[in-house]
Amino acid sequence: MKGIVCKICGYIAINGKTPDKCPVCSKPGTEFAEKADAIKTAADPKNMNDSEKKHVPSFLVVKQCGLIPGGCIDVHIKVGTVIHVMQPEHFIGHIDSYIDGEFVSRTSFPSDKLNPATVLHVKAGGCKISAVEWCNMHGAWIGETTV
User: Domains plus CATH for the chain?
Assistant: First the structure.
């Protein structure tokens, strides 16, 4: 899948637009380059192979938020339907989260003591949530859901 990639921090603009500055590292848009194969996707999401099961972000949508009452939807994001290893030599570096194609957050995993998962507290439904994870050995993978 095509993406516009920051050459400094690896952020990928999935909306097809080069930002004026990177939302992660604040470098100027001149530090971006378009890559035809920036993001990997599952060939058949209903029949994923072992590598896809370990890399494509998966979602658990909880309509009743346990932290913020009244109109908050929890969107739990984890890397893979089969948990990805977190070892010094093979790990998930971060998960970037997007709402309707626009970047909203990066969760970094600087330690093998963490599991590759994050959560968004979405104010209202009717939007597409995308997550792009970066594996140091297998690159960036995308998963999407609608809430």
Answer: 1-40 (2.20.28.10), 44-146 (2.60.40.730)
Residue 28 DSSP symbol: B
Q: pLDDT digit string (tens) for 64-83?
A: 887 888 889 999 999 999 98
Q: Global pTM? A: 0.94
pLDDT tens sequence across 26-42: 999 999 999 999 999 99
